[in-house]
Amino acid sequence: MRRYEVIYIxxxxxDAESLSEVVDKFSDIITKxxxxxxxxxxxxxxxxxxEVKQFDKGYYVExxxxxxxxxxxxLERNLKLDDRVLQYITVKVDENVDPDEVMSREQQQxxxxxxxxDQVLEEG
Length: 124
What we know:
The protein is of the alpha+beta class. It has 3 helices and 4 strands; from the N terminus they run βαββαβα.
């Protein structure tokens, strides 16, 4: 299995419910094709470097996942067909990964980050 990262930009004029519906739709596609969503980061509304489909802003979402090339093909096909998605890019991060190992490593990093944040709050 391979590890990928896809960043896609959603129409910024959608309401919060529609935004979460779009994010859930693409996460579901990955899991239905026996992929594993490692992490989803919603970066929020940002200014675009140039206009895309007559928008100067977009809602950015980063999705880190593990899957096979067929998963990426289907995900990109759906991203291309969805009118709410302005732009997307998929990058292969790693060639041969164990999804369980990636998930546990990610959880450990999140735990360490939370503990560090808690220490800063206690000291402050």
